Amino acid sequence: MRAGQLRQIIKILRTTDSIDELGTVVPNFSVLKTTRASISPISGNEYFINSALVNDETHYIIIRKTDVTPKDRLQHGNDIYDITQVLDTRKMGIECVILAKQRLKE
Length: 106
Prior knowledge:
The protein is mainly β. It has a single domain, classed as Thrombin, subunit H (Beta Barrel). The chain has strands at residues 8-19, 25-49, 52-64, 73-76, 79-87, 95-102. Strands 1-2-3-6-5-4 form a six-stranded antiparallel beta barrel. Strand 1 and strand 2 (25-49) form a beta hairpin. The protein starts with 7 loop residues before the first strand and ends with a strand. The mean pLDDT is 84.
């Protein structure tokens, strides 16, 4: 990992399920860790489904090795990313490569 590669600051969000007054399971996300990352878009597709614009953008995110899982989310500023894969590409336990999909703004 080269010096200066991890320029962005992200938050790793972990889900904790709670039950509301109707008995429905509601996922709540809390900050697990704040860390540095490199975020690069690797593809971007926009298309219409039922007259609504759908954005299917995939990102390549590099962070230092941590216990992140595909059940977690990443937050960079106002952008939220759903993790699709977590890879240890160099098999050295130094860095994680995360493939993620950016969530649509709600």
